[in-house]
Amino acid sequence: MINSISEKLRAARKVVFVTGAGISQESGIPTFRGKDGMWRNYDAMKLATIEAFYDDPKLVWEWYNERRHNIFAAEPNLGHKAIAELEKYSEVVILTQNIDGLHQRAGSSQVLELHGSIVKIKCTVCDFKDEMYSEFSENPPLCTCGNILRPDVVWFGEGLPQDVWQKAIIHANNCDVMIIAGTSLVVSPANTLPIYAKQNDATLIEINPDNTIMTEDMDLSIRSTSAIALPELVSIFK
Ligand code: APR
């Protein structure tokens, strides 16, 4: 089994990664579900909504400010770095649900951010968008149109940026290998990407200490953390 997977890896012309919060866990950034999924006494799932933001903009803004602080202080780990190194041996595209930018900071060149980015902000009403690298002010600032600005991330109940999503589907459809690392695969539509790959005969590999809802569809499940498993997996390509 492992031998035949190794052969497929070495022969792969294009490898697509689908990543989630777990890949940044070893950089000190909490995941969303399980024991990490609380911020103070708030459920992260409930804070990441437009309803929560309109209800208490200052609170949600403060949550994002704290996350920005953690993310800016964090460093890419061995998992992010292994993926970046793989570009020496194969075409690599990363479809990430993370907003932390750590793949790019590790040196990966083709990263599609499905759920937006921690450095981006946008107006709640007009088309204004910007990037912000400093600490946030205490309250969300106002746009020149007079409405409040919000993080430019995808909250529950919101659609993905369509240009990014369309490209993600194309990459998922035409990869030889898809490596799914650090995601529970419970959030749609990102969790449909492995299905596109499978339908096109790609080899599916999952890296996660726990089972996921798609474990049975995987060609190989590696029950380890991404900072341990990814450098080992990438060494097979060399
Ligand atoms: N290495 C690999 N996987 C890990 C590690 C690790 N060190 N630590 C935890 N994991 C796994 C967990 O077992 C879990 O399956 O990472 C997964 C993290 O799952 P979630 O917290 O659900 O994160 P994610 O899948 O990225 O969530 C998707 O939900 O809240 C929204 O928009 C948010 O992008 C996020 C989306």
Q: What would you say about this model in short?
A:
The protein folds into two domains: 1-28 and 75-115 and 159-238, 3-Layer(aba) Sandwich (Rossmann fold), CATH 3.40.50; 30-73 and 119-153, 2-Layer Sandwich (SIR2/SIRT2 'Small Domain'). It has helices at 2-11, 44-47, 50-55, 57-73, 78-86, 102-106, 162-173, 193-199, 226-237; strands at 14-19, 38-39, 42-43, 91-96, 111-113, 116-123, 129-131, 149-153, 177-181, 203-207, 220-222.
- What is the helical fraction, as a range of percent? 25-40%
Major pleated sheet:
6 strands, parallel
Give me the CATH architecture of the largest domain, please. 3-Layer(aba) Sandwich
Radius of gyration: 18 Å
Low-confidence stretches: none
Task: List the domain count as a whole number.
Answer: 2
User: Which strand-content bin applies to the residues?
Assistant: 15-25%
List the helices and strands and how they pair.
Layout: H1 2-11, E1 14-19, E2 38-39, E3 42-43, H2 44-47, H3 50-55, H4 57-73, H5 78-86, E4 91-96, H6 102-106, E5 111-113, E6 116-123, E7 129-131, E8 149-153, H7 162-173, E9 177-181, H8 193-199, E10 203-207, E11 220-222, H9 226-237
Parallel strand pairs: 1-4, 1-9, 4-5, 9-10, 10-11
Antiparallel strand pairs: 2-3, 6-7, 6-8
Adenosine-5-diphosphoribose binds at residues 20-23, 25-26, 31-33, 48, 97, 115, 181-184, 186-187, 207-210, 212, 225-226.
